[in-house]
Amino acid sequence: MVFKPSPVTPVTAVLLAEIYAKAGAPEGLFNVVQGGQETGSLLCHHPDVAKVSFTGSVPTGQKIMEMASKGIKPVTLELGGKSPLIIFKDSDLENAVRGALMANFLSQGQVCSNGTRVYVQKDILPEFVEEVVKRTHAITIGDPLLESTRMGALVNRPHLDKVLSFVEQAKKEGATVLCGGEPFVPSDPKLRGGYYMTPCVLGDCTDEMTCVKQEIFGPVMSVLSFKTEQEVLQRANNTTMGLAAGVFTRDMTRAHRLVEQLEAGSCFINNYNITPVEVPFGGFKMSGIGRENGQVTIEFYSQLKTVFVEMGDVDSLF
């Protein structure tokens, strides 16, 4: 295996290689190659590469698929998401709030499966928003190596600027910033050059807004209201992506009825962003091809060979 990490996250891949080596993995089994777009292109086109797996954005995934097609190479693509989280009025509100926070602010919102379109049934919208905003205000931002920290920095300056620009665009389109969405300077002098922002909750959102349609990949939650199950199902599926989806309700019959119709590879009922390695993970539609994790993944990293062995005489028509 040859692993090329993102050029903005080069270190952990090398640490992983060192861990494998110390654990006794044979030399050459796991290899790390650093580089940018050109390196990725060379790997995709290389005749010795038999399979390409990519995690990243939809546009880059499309390019990877095109390059791999030149050599008829199979691909696994784990791409973007704009996943819906649907909260019904009969939900356990405390758990729904916890789920919404986990669905949006884990890893500074830099998680492809995040449930960033939070649909809340109209009857409980004010109560839900009040509690979410209160909890979001209380998130401790700072050094991720400290136990007390709940949110660290975004990956780099251009990405921070991009996420903040999504917040500004949301305001122009009529969304209300209920909290956060601003650059943040930690009190620790060592962190003052970091790419921090305050976690953001956007209210008064509609399905047509940029913040609801495009993946932001940052700590920005868009809250929308709905009235009926059928209405929210149609709105939830009205996207080109389908990585994940979540439903909070005490009615298990409704929950299963809904997830059966949700066009998403991973569906959560009364929780969110739970990804044990035993369970397959991957997307529908433009969120990708193939699966990661779970036993089924072996099928995407191996080829099936059929062998016939005749133990008797050949039955021939000729």
Automatic annotation (TrEMBL):
Enumerate the UniProt keywords alphabetically: Oxidoreductase
Q: Which Gene3D superfamilies match?
A: Aldehyde Dehydrogenase, Chain A, domain 1, Aldehyde Dehydrogenase, Chain A, domain 2
Entry keyword annotation includes Transmembrane helix: no
> Which SUPFAM superfamilies does the entry link to?
ALDH-like
Which PROSITE patterns does the entry mention? ALDEHYDE_DEHYDR_CYS, ALDEHYDE_DEHYDR_GLU
Active site, per annotation? 78
The keyword Transmembrane appears for this protein: no
**InterPro entries according to UniProt:** Ald_DH/histidinol_DH (IPR016161), Ald_DH_C (IPR016163), Ald_DH_CS_CYS (IPR016160), Ald_DH_CS_GLU (IPR029510), Ald_DH_N (IPR016162), Aldehyde_DH_dom (IPR015590)
All copies of domain Aldehyde dehydrogenase, residue ranges: 1-307
Similarity comment: family membership: Belongs to the aldehyde dehydrogenase family.
Identify the PANTHER family for this entry.
ALDEHYDE DEHYDROGENASE-RELATED
What is the official name of this protein in its record? Aldehyde dehydrogenase 9 member A1-B
